[in-house]
Design goal:
Length: 498
């Protein structure tokens, strides 16, 4: 008989803290429903006191989702807990996740307090949360750097106060796998009443050890893991759901099962990546574009003889459709719709018609249409609500000459034109745009990514522009990288608050 491991997904809370990746409520509901279909046990839907948007998202996700527990984060503060309880009012199963820093540096610098007072605050928060819900999770922030003996006292006190789950976060991603596993074992062995609660892992990836630490925690007794899709999250991210789920599936001898429907992993990964405009690194385990691509002659030869020679996971097990329909200029709407469905994107008929039109134009220019091209096209109508639109762009550039760009912008229905020279075509185009949009803005970051192999590929551009003390994030995609750069710049400007 195998042990059950609970999957707590925090893509919509810790994952969503990534700069520039914020989702609106409609998008969060879409992700939450996909997480439900994936089979996660708990969805951490937000930190309700942090903003009206988060508060509202927790309410709407609670209404939209049926069987996973909906969890809301709080500090160990009564007002936070009141607001979280209110936001959870429609949830069929609900959990309040409250907590406080327990490492010496948190106690001293964050709270200017002492160990005894922190235990009192932790206990008070758990007791207060239990007035509203039966399921209360406590987090000991920076538990990774908290001395084990003191941590055991905190854990024992909060379980006694009514915590049903106790989260042991390695908040800074500092621990070594052996050290983190030993911490969980120490708690399992030394906390009175540990059988009345579940220990949870929550590992960050600052040293690239989040998944290893999580697995080490599980091997030592943790029965809940806190994870995100694609491992997104603060700084270097959180433990990725797909890695943990597939490790346990590949290593059946561990006798630990999850409720994850692994065939939904890749569609979920793509949905999150596309809604958050956050590309997945090609060599990312399980969900990266190259995760199942064999390129060397020796590997290809082996795989052709028997896939087991170089493959430990059947791509179909994570939802990669081996028999993908190849999209060409002769494909119909049904083929496009099928492919989008496989990629986790559902569109209304009206949107599908628009994407199909764009797809036909692209297929005329480019013989090999990739999944990433399709995802970019599906997001293309992101510009529908833009009040500034690019009407045309012409650039001349070369070696030994200054680049020249002329462009036309439509700003709320009015037409503007400008031309400028620059150090390169993108510089010239941005200077021309600045002549029309006279604002003090500074380009802070500029990344160009070609999606696959060909020179006819779609280029994706991510930009960060600073304006009026705030950072704005923009995205553009085009077979012409200068046009993609201009689109990304315009995307930023369209988001300016004034
Ligand atoms: O990393 C962390 O410590 C957290 C807690 C708020 C759970 O995200
Ligand atoms: Zn975290």
């Amino acid at each position: 008989m195998s042990d059950r491991l609970f999957i707590f997904d925090t893509t919509l809370r810790d994952g969503e803290q990534v700069p520039g990746c914020q989702l609106n409520t409609v998008e969060k509901i879409q992700v939450a429903k996909q997480l439900e279909a994936l089979g996660v046990d708990v969805i951490e839907a937000g930190f309700p006191i942090s903003s009206p948007g988060d508060f509202n998202s927790v309410i709407e996700i609670s209404k939209a989702v049926t069987w996973p527990t909906i969890c809301a984060l709080t500090r160990a503060v009564q007002k936070d807990i009141d607001v979280a309880a209110d936001a959870l009012r429609y949830a069929k199963r609900k959990r309040i996740h409250t907590g406080i820093g327990t490492s010496d540096s948190h106690i001293k610098y964050k709270f200017n307090s002492n160990r005894e007072e922190i235990i009192e605050r932790a206990v008070a928060a758990v007791k207060y949360a239990r007035r509203f819900v039966d399921d209360v999770e406590f987090y000991a922030e920076d538990a990774g750097r908290t001395e084990n003996e003191y941590l055991a006292r905190v854990v024992e006190a909060v379980i006694k106060a009514g915590a049903t789950v106790v989260n042991i976060p390695d908040t800074t991603g500092y621990c070594l796998p052996e050290e983190y596993g030993a911490k969980i074992k120490y708690l399992m062995d030394h906390v009175d009443g540990i059988d009345r609660a579940i220990l949870s892992t929550h590992c960050h990836n600052d040293l690239g050890m989040a998944t290893a630490n999580t697995i080490s925690g599980v091997l030592n007794g943790a029965r809940q893991v806190e994870v995100t899709i694609n491992g997104i999250g603060e700084r270097a991210g959180n433990t990725s759901l797909e890695e943990v789920a597939m490790i346990l599936r590949c290593h059946k001898h561990l006798n630990i099962d999850t409720n994850i429907n692994t065939q939904k992993i890749c569609p979920t990964s793509r949905m999150v990546s596309s809604l958050m405009n956050m590309p997945v690194q090609p060599n990312k385990a399980i969900v990266g574009r190259n995760a199942f691509a064999h390129s060397s002659g020796i590997h290809q030869d082996g795989v052709l003889k028997n896939v087991q020679t170089y493959e430990i996971i059947d791509p179909k097990d994570v939802g990669i459709d081996d028999n993908a329909i190849v999209l060409t200029a002769r494909s119909g709407r049904a083929a496009l719709k099928h492919r989008l469905g496989v990629l986790g994107v559902e569109l209304s008929q009206e949107k599908l018609d628009k994407v199909y039109e764009d797809f036909l134009k692209l297929a005329d220019k480019k013989k090999d249409i990739t999944d990433d091209d399709i995802l970019v096209l599906a997001g293309a109508d992101r510009t529908l609500n833009h009040h500034i639109k690019l009407e045309y762009l012409q650039v001349t550039s070369g070696v030994g000459v200054r680049s020249v760009a002329s462009l036309g912008l439509n700003i709320s229905g009015e037409h503007f034109e400008a031309a400028a020279t620059g150090n390169g075509p993108v510089d010239a185009a941005i200077k021309a745009m600045k002549q029309i949009i006279r604002r003090q803005m500074t380009l802070k970051e500029f990344t160009i990514q070609a999606i696959s192999k060909g020179s006819d590929d779609v280029g994706k551009v991510h930009m960060q522009v600073e304006y009026d003390g705030q950072m704005y994030y923009g995205f553009g995609a085009n077979t012409d990288i200068v046009a993609a750069s201009v689109e990304a710049y315009i995307d930023c400007i369209n988001k300016f608050k004034k």
